[in-house]
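Model: Ready when you are.
Researcher: Fold this.
Model:
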Amino acid sequence: MEFWFSERHTPHVKMSIRVDRQLYSGKSEFQRIDVFESPEFGRFLTLDGYMMLTEKDEFVYHEMMTHVPLAVHPHVRDVLVIGAGDGGVIRELARYPEIERMDMVEIDPLVVEVCREYLPQTACCLDDSRLRIHYEDGLKFVRTCQDCYDLIIVDSTDPFGPGEGLFTLEFYGNCFKALREDGMMINQHESPFYAEDALACQRAHKRIVESFPISRVYQAHIPTYPSGHWLFGFASKKYHPWKDLNVEVWKKRNLACRYYTPALHRGAFCLPAYVEELLKNVE
């Protein structure tokens, strides 16, 4: 008998992955957490039945969330990461020795606990001495911060349930205040392909444009996310995402990436016409 995990992307579309076994199933006060093992994608994490990451393609998401801003901003020392309980963003940030402090705000301690045990590929740097984990609501945490960070990475779940508050105008405004005068914010921006997801993209982009003087959107291909076409938001007080890209400095780091390159960095901001139209309609 075959077992399959299925996630509904629209009322008419779903994605299914064959499962060898279920490694973990539990429920926190916030959500249901499951870890499965599959022959094609390795281990994968779901929250409330929605795919969060797989061992096979998580590198795309986490590299694009971290290396894009760090190839632009010339002196990131203090970083705030909201969400990211799986540890993938922290793993990539930990590769930069000049980063002095990483504050990770994760609302659900059980997510971190489960990922430490079952997803060590992503959770491998959660004991980094520069990291402080705060188990609280990211929306409330950022309200208390002012002029504290060079970079904020919002690695949130989808804009409903525990992650809903991380897509509001209030939240983006608080992020702006929490950043230093040349700070920047990166957020996951959903997929532009299906109608309901496209509306979420528009709402988030409209609110970020209202909060930051520089706001651009970039893309990546992530096979297990809805439609495989995923967007990220780049919001900045000062630096432009490709005009201020310093290729030579980034190359001197000798960081081996599986997805990110400086050439791809520029190309990622070249959006398809239908996405450009989608975003212009709310700018």
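Researcher: Now this one.
Model:
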Amino acid sequence: MYRKLIKELAQWKLRAKHNPLILQGARQVGKTWLLKEFGKVYYEDVCYLNFERTPHLSDVFEGELSPQKIVEQLSVFHRRKIDSQKCLLIFDEVQECPRALTSLKYFSEEAPEYDICCAGSLLGVALHKGTSFPVGKVDFLTLYPMDFEEFLMVYESEQLVQFLHHVQFDTNLNPYREKLESALKLYFIIGGMPGAVQKYLDTHDLELVNDVLYFILQTYQNDFSKHAEKRIVEKIRYVWNSLPSQLSKENKKFVYGLVREGARAREYEDAILWLKDTGLITAVHRITKPALPLSAYSDLSDFKIYALDVGLLRVLSGLSAQTIVNGNAVFEEFKGAFTEQFVLQELRTKHNNQIYYWTSGNSAEVDFIIANANNVIPIEVKATVSVQAKSLKVYNQKYAPQQMLRFSLLPPCVHDNLIDWPLYLLFTSKANYNFSNVL
């Protein structure tokens, strides 16, 4: 596996003063693997603690939360002394031990020499339940499923990825387009869940990949019953199972009537919040005006929701890999729902969920709106090479933006202030969306 976030973990370690770090992310996205790999590469020793698998570890955090006392007792569990200069402490599933979370404050204040990384799949849920949290005393990173760049690194080669990072508008991509489109199609089918990607690399069997994805979905379903309040479990299932129908509409605004006939917003707000807290969905809100800061113009009652991963969405939708493995059906399926889901995933890693969309009545909808420096950038997503930017034209006439982006299977191109950029190059440095030098 290759995960880019290990570089950010390394930067955290090198900072002269750093707090304990919490790595957030949904189940099965690879948090445990990443922290163990980080420890193996950058430390001489790793003390790994899993509070879900070994509940009695919580006893260490009873009574006084003295870092020295805690380290001494953990050294007994570790069967050797924990050296602050050499050892990484990993607290996994830390939400299962609220006092371990609270102790991070005291490590930050009294024993900052110890490097502690925590992971928690249900941490957001725990915090909403009132778990005491050391505000301002921890650092955060979020791990998502593997993006397309990470997938290409293991499916193709590092050399190809490095080449793509240097693509310019005049670069001849013809020798690579078929390979890149095929890899992108495969990514739409497999998704970025590390277990599914590894299964394909090991077997090249899409049916076995499906088994992995079904298992992950079942794990999430089990979490609904195990960790959510009983009063909202059924509502969570309804919202979760409505994802395919929500995203298959031409207008992808979340409609409560598709969750259940007669459903109302106030009945399902808690269920949507629970799914957001676990990282299983991302909500993209409509903005009433494309001005900075975008959050000031967000309509909290009008939103679209996306799944965690395009591969999971495919399986949740009941589409077999074999029915869409040929041609470009995967890009066009469900009115381009998978393509839009893919773009959301790529944007999410770069823009930390500060992603919105815009509509003009019922006449136009711009799929995504992001901010880059002092610019507000509209983005339209197209599934293939057949593109008509009707909504961008409406937006352009109304606001005359410095630049607009259209992601599709077209090669890189500039048309006045409209930039075409291929879906398979969203991860590249150009896709930081600073194209001012070419306009």
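Researcher: Key takeaway?
Model: The mean pLDDT is 91.
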